[in-house]
């Protein structure tokens, strides 16, 4: 038992390795020795010892006990030493002796030894007693020991059992051989011929004496079936032995092209667009001017990826120096992607001269007269001229400005006839449309002042004075009184109507008795109508939306009210609901003008667009003109000539020819005639703030933010 | 109620019913994306652009009819079969049953695309019309290296190569080639067949490289279809020449990589052999004979046929006329290099020149075995060479660079060779696909060529060297006609006068404005007579502006877009001219 134990004791470092290797080797060696043992009586004890078989060991032990003389062999076995008898014998003796002495073998097992590093013992022996650590010789001592005794060179310290083990000659030889990469045993032949263990010949006494079954002699049915199957398959041609020659299978596919007229069931095929053909710059040897300069090439790199040119022209002086095109595959691939992934749409590519898109218009010369050149300037205002108005005959022109003055000018001479000075900026002036009634309505702030211009004959003056005399005012009902109050104007002797909100625009009725005022912020009460003769204010209807301007129909009793987006037409005799609603489709209406015929109107907006409505046609614009880049301030029809104009904050005024035909089937003819640009553009937020036509002549007045009024004549 | 509520049982309508997204289509067809892609490529189905995109902008929409068309495609079933079969093979392999796997692989189900080609291109013309991409792709794959990784077999590359050679041989033989352009990307060829202009690009014959950003699956699916298409087209073309297809080539020449030459010889030989047949003799006989014969036949037919069938007669006549017309078109190309004999040096692109030169009636030989004639042949007129050689120089021939041939082909005249001689930097190679007048910029050399062409047409020999200088100086152009010069002077004088008047007017106006600042009195502007003096250009501009006011928004936008396009074009031309000016300045 002790021997086995000893054998299993792992010896650290070199010894351990050696041990393992030996075990392996002996395993290999086993067969050989066993086979040998069958035939020969010589029993090699070493061979035997290598076996790990516990049974065998035990038997060996038994032998041990029986035969004391054989003890040597056992000891040898425990050392796993092979070699000359002499050496082994010595070894045996030593080992024997050592076995007696070294009783305490460590039993701690395969654990890290540093667990016992700080202990006094290194483990326990089989009886459970501590094995105390031996005192370690100091280095000098050990050195002296080695120098004294050469045998010390062959001693190895066994940490596990805390002892020194002397290597035998045999072991040293093993180590040498292993270092050389050979088998440790010198007499081991790694390439020995293989000897079969069992004899394959018929034995004289077979294991089973049963007779051969019949099926061994009959052909297999399943195999026959399989063969039949294969044969069938071959006959049918399912299995082909020679690889079939790949035939092209080509034939005249488009033999009868005439059958092409048959209708295909699928959708219309849109052929893919062809690739763009290469230009001069793609040439391998382009003209020098096609090659970009270095600076241009550098600037390409600064461009965003998608703007960079796909191919930068290069120049090769010889054909053989052209390199392979790197993107060939990529481009081919991209084309493939385009072919199967891009939606195809048939697009009409218009290949026409852009000029042909312009509408054919009659010549401007045929449409004369129209105002085309600046004839007169009326200077005198110090602020922006916001509003102008002409009298019935076109002899006088009234203007209002942000400096608070209202002036009357003589049209033909440009002489300033009269000046009224107010405290507030003038918003709007309007001359009474009647011939003998030269009174002027002026709107500023919340007030509407009706001024006597004193330009008429005496008897007319009397009438006017009587008209403007604020006698006994009929007491209005409360709701109207909250909107407007009639007051006498002390300063200039007219009438002042004070509103509850700022007045934004006014318009006289054609009969000169009624006057509509619009208060942009008045919401539902934004439009009121004043009657001068009765000194009466009416609020005929509720307004939906924010009113911008209101204009009377030139011949019938309708009122057009423009809110921010729509124009509503109200019948003044039946005021419940608007008669008509015109949808401009614009964001913010700024002005409105009605054709003297009454069926057409134009609407100007703050986005620079102008709509022409033909009310017989539809409630949608007949034509939308985008002529100004900035807000349109006013639009205006001429009373007798087929002209209309628009003025804008971009300091231009457009004059159009707008002819309305009596024939209902014929659409109005609109022709742009002239752009009037003489107002200065420099003044801040300037532009043309108002435009009015002369009532009789084809002349246009424009009021500019540069405090000038201009007259354009034909 | 939601806005787009559709009551149960009511069918979808409009775009929602007419189009489906790709994922819907996949679900509908019960295929995976890969298979769907293959089907689309092979069947030529492409997405459509619905007017209203019901599912949103980031989807691909297919028409329901297109998907139904795919649904009824027998190929779909075939692809499914192949898929299941592949599973079988895979299973056998996984079970280590190599024998079975091998057996299965030999019996894979296959499919053919000929029916699809017929379906997609009902007529031959249709097929020719879409041939550009096909040819470009096949030509590209003909020079690609076979690669295991990309699943590109040697067999396919060889097939591509064969197909391209067959195509080129036919084009060359029929003298249908019209334009050639050597670009950085490769060589562009344009041929005209049955009235269709077919343009394709062949890469330079240098080893191509694979790039990683390419999905070879897609490319190979396309290639598969294109190979089949080109094979059928070649068949048809060869059939029209009465030549057997596929051609059987001289193995010796084939081995020497002179396939094209072998092919053309084959075609020549076989069509000559068939010349007895009536189909070819019509084209080989002269025109007058042709006319006579057709008239004779007409008379015969009129006797034979009842008079109620004029259509057939018309057809016959039309046929004859067409042949004559074709001759007209190709005659120039056929006889361009008629009496010239070319010899190609080793370093010039042989394949391209072997294709181009016979197409324009030249005789070619090259350095190497199998060449029709040797280098020392005394009758060689032109030796195409790309680098100065130390070999024997024959005085009887001209040594020119290959670009000369391409330029001659594009100009349709024999250009003077002195600029193209070996060792010199040749003149710029211009693209024949550009319409210089439409583009707005005419390179100098294009002008020179134009003059040479005009001279050739008039049978007048151009004075060497005069053409270019003449055009470079714009002053010279004025000398051309005394009349025009006088007019020019007058116009200039007028202009000067106008400008002076204008200036004066402006000054006067300014003065008046300053003077009248503090005067309220009327300011009377100038007479109307002088009103018209201000720049006519500006007035015209204003007029132009005014009529745009009346346009509808759609038209106005279109107009503006066109104007922008014109401006861009102009800008690019200006850039080029600026560069040219700089170059000229640097030179002088």
UniProtKB/TrEMBL annotation, chain A:
Gene3D superfamilies: YVTN repeat-like/Quinoprotein amine dehydrogenase. Its main location: nucleus. Residues 1-10 have a biased composition (Basic residues). WD repeats lie at residues 378-419. One of its GO terms (cellular component) is nucleoplasm. InterPro entries: BOP1/Erb1, BOP1_N_dom, WD40/YVTN_repeat-like_dom_sf, WD40_repeat_CS, WD40_repeat_dom_sf, WD40_rpt. It comes from the Eukaryota. Residues 116-371 form the BOP1 N-terminal domain. PANTHER family: RIBOSOME BIOGENESIS PROTEIN BOP1, RIBOSOME BIOGENESIS PROTEIN BOP1 BLOCK OF PROLIFERATION 1 PROTEIN. This is Ribosome biogenesis protein BOP1 homolog. It comes from Arabidopsis arenosa. The lineage of its organism: Eukaryota, Viridiplantae, Streptophyta, Embryophyta, Tracheophyta.
From TrEMBL, chain B:
PROSITE patterns: BRCT. The keyword rRNA processing applies. The keyword Nucleus applies. Residues 332-422 form the BRCT domain. Keywords: Coiled coil, Nucleus, Ribosome biogenesis, rRNA processing. One of its GO terms (molecular function) is ribonucleoprotein complex binding. Its main location: nucleus. It is found in: Nucleus, Nucleolus; Nucleus, Nucleoplasm. One of its GO terms (biological process) is maturation of 5.8S rRNA from tricistronic rRNA transcript (SSU-rRNA, 5.8S rRNA, LSU-rRNA). It comes from the Eukaryota. Pfam families: BRCT_2, Pescadillo_N. SMART domains: BRCT. Belongs to the pescadillo family. Required for maturation of ribosomal RNAs and formation of the large ribosomal subunit. This is Pescadillo homolog. It comes from Arabidopsis thaliana x Arabidopsis arenosa.
């Amino acid at each position: 038992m002790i021997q086995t134990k000893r054998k299993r004791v792992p010896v650290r470092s070199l010894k351990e390795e050696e041990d393992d290797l030996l075990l392996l080797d002996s395993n290999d060696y086993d067969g050989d020795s066993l086979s040998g043992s069958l035939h020969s009586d010589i029993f090699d004890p070493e061979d035997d010892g290598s076996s790990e078989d516990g049974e065998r060991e035990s038997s060996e032990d038994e032998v041990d006990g029986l035969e004391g003389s054989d003890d040597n062999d056992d000891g040898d076995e425990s050392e796993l030493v092979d070699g000359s008898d002499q050496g082994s014998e010595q070894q045996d003796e030593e080992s024997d002796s050592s076995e007696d002495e070294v009783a305490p073998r460590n039993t701690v097992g395969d654990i890290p030894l540093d667990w016992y590093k700080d202990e006094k013992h290194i483990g326990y022996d089989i009886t459970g007693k501590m094995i105390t650590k031996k005192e370690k010789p100091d280095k000098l001592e050990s050195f002296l020991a080695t120098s004294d005794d050469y045998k010390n060179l062959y001693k190895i310290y066994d940490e596990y059992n805390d002892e020194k083990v002397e290597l035998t000659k045999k072991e040293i030889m093993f180590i040498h051989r292993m270092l050389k990469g050979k088998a440790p045993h010198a007499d081991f032949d790694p390439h020995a011929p293989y000897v079969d263990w069992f004899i394959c010949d018929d034995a004289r006494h077979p294991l089973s004496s049963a007779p051969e079954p019949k099926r061994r002699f009959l052909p297999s049915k399943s195999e026959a079936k399989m063969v039949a199957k294969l044969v069938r398959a071959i006959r049918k041609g399912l299995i082909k032995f020679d690889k079939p020659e790949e035939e092209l299978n080509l034939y005249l596919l488009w033999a009868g092209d005439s059958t092409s007229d048959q209708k295909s069931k699928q959708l219309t095929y849109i052929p893919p667009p062809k690739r763009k053909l290469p230009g001069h710059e793609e040439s391998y040897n382009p003209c020098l001017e096609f090659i970009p300069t270095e600076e241009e090439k550098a600037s390409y790199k600064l461009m965003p990826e998608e703007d960079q040119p796909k191919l930068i022209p290069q120049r090769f002086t010889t054909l053989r120096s052209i390199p392979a095109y790197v993107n060939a595959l990529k481009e081919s691939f991209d084309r493939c992607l385009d072919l199967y992934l891009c939606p195809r749409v048939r697009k009409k590519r218009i290949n026409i001269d852009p000029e042909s898109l312009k509408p054919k218009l009659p010549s401007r010369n045929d449409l004369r007269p129209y105002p085309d050149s600046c004839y007169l300037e009326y200077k005198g205002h110090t602020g922006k001229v916001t509003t102008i108005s002409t009298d019935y005959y076109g002899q006088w022109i009234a203007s209002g400005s942000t400096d608070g003055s209202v002036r009357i000018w003589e049209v033909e001479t440009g002489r300033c006839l009269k000046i009224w000075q107010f405290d507030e900026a003038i918003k709007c002036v309007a001359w009474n449309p009647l011939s003998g009634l030269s009174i002027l309505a002026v709107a500023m702030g919340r007030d509407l002042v009706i001024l006597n211009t004193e330009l008429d004959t005496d008897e007319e003056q009397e009438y006017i004075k009587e008209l403007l005399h604020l006698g006994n005012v009929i007491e209005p009902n409360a709701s109207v009184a909250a909107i407007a109050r009639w007051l006498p104007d002390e300063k200039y002797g007219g009438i002042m109507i004070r509103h509850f909100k700022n007045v934004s625009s006014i318009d006289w009725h054609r009969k000169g008795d009624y006057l509509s005022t619009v208060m942009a912020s008045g919401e539902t009460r934004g439009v009121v109508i004043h009657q001068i003769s009765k000194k009466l204010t009416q609020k005929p209807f509720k307004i939906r939306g924010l009113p911008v301007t209101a204009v009377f129909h030139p011949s019938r009793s309708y009122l057009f009210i423009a809110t921010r987006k729509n124009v509503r037409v109200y019948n003044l005799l039946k005021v419940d609901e608007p008669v008509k609603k015109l949808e401009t489709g614009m964001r913010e209406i700024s002005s409105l003008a009605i054709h003297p015929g009454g069926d057409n109107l134009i609407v100007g907006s703050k986005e620079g667009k102008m709509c022409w409505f033909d009310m017989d046609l539809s409630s949608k614009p007949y034509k939308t003109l985008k002529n100004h880049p900035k807000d349109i301030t006013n639009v205006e029809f001429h009373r007798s000539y087929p002209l209309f104009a628009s003025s804008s904050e971009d300091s231009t005024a457009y004059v159009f020819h707008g002819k309305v035909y009596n024939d209902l089937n014929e659409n109005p003819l609109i022709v742009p005639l002239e752009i009037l640009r003489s107002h200065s553009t420099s003044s801040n937020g300037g532009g043309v703030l108002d435009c009015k036509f002369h009532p009789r002549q084809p002349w246009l007045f424009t009021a500019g933010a540069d405090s000038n009024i201009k007259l354009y004549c034909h | 109620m939601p806005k787009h509520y559709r009551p149960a049982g009511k069918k979808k309508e409009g775009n929602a019913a007419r189009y489906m997204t790709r994922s819907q289509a996949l679900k509908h067809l019960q295929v995976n994306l890969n298979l769907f892609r293959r089907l689309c490529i092979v069947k030529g189905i492409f997405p459509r652009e619905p007017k209203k995109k019901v599912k949103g902008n980031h989807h691909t929409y297919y028409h329901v009819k297109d998907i139904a068309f795919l649904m009824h495609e027998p190929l779909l079933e075939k692809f499914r079969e192949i898929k299941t079969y592949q599973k079988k093979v895979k299973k056998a392999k996984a079970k280590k049953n190599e024998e079975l796997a091998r057996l299965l692989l030999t019996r894979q189900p296959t499919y053919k695309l000929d029916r699809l080609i017929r379906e997609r291109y009902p007529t031959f013309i249709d097929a020719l019309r879409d041939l550009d991409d096909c040819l470009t792709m096949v030509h590209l794959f003909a020079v690609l290296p076979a690669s295991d990784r990309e699943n590109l077999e040697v067999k396919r590359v060889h097939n591509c190569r064969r197909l391209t050679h067959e195509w080129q041989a036919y084009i060359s033989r029929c003298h249908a080639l019209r334009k050639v352009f050597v670009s950085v990307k490769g060589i562009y060829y344009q041929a005209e067949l049955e009235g269709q202009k077919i343009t394709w690009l062949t890469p330079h014959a240098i080893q191509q490289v694979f790039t990683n950003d390419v999905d070879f699956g897609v490319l190979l699916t396309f290639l598969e279809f294109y190979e089949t298409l080109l094979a059928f087209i070649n068949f048809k073309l060869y059939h029209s020449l009465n030549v057997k297809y596929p051609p059987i080539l001289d193995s010796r020449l084939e081995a020497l990589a002179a396939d094209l030459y072998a092919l053309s010889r084959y075609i020549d030989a076989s069509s000559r052999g068939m010349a007895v047949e009536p189909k070819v003799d019509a084209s080989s006989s002269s025109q007058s004979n042709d006319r006579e014969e057709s008239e004779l036949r007409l008379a015969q037919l009129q006797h034979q046929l009842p008079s109620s069938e004029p259509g057939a007669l018309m057809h016959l006549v039309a046929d004859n006329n067409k042949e004559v017309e074709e001759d007209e078109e190709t005659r120039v190309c056929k006889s361009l290099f008629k009496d010239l004999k070319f010899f190609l040096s080793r370093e010039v692109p042989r394949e391209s020149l072997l294709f181009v030169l016979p197409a324009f009636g030249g005789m070619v030989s090259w350095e190497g075995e199998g060449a029709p004639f040797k280098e020392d042949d005394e009758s060689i007129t032109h030796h195409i060479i790309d680098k100065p050689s130390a070999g024997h120089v024959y005085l009887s021939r001209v040594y020119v660079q290959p670009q000369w041939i391409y330029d001659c082909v594009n100009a349709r005249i024999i250009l003077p060779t002195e600029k193209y001689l070996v060792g010199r930097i040749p003149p710029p190679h211009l693209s024949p696909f550009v319409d210089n007048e439409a583009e707005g910029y005419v390179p100098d050399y294009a002008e020179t060529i134009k003059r040479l062409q005009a001279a050739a047409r008039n049978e007048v020999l151009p004075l060497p060297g005069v053409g270019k200088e003449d055009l470079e100086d714009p002053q010279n152009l004025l000398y051309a006609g005394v009349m025009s010069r006088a007019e020019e002077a007058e116009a200039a004088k007028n202009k000067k006068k106008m400008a002076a008047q204008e200036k004066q007017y402006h000054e006067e106006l300014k003065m008046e404005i300053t003077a009248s600042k503090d005067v309220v009195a009327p300011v009377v502007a100038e007479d109307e007579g002088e009103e018209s003096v201000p720049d006519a250009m500006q007035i015209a501009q204003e007029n132009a502006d005014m009529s745009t006011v009346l346009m509808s928004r759609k038209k106005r936008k279109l107009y503006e877009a066109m104007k922008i396009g014109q401006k861009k074009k102009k800008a690019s031309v200006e850039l080029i001219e600026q560069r040219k000016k700089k170059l000229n300045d640097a030179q002088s």
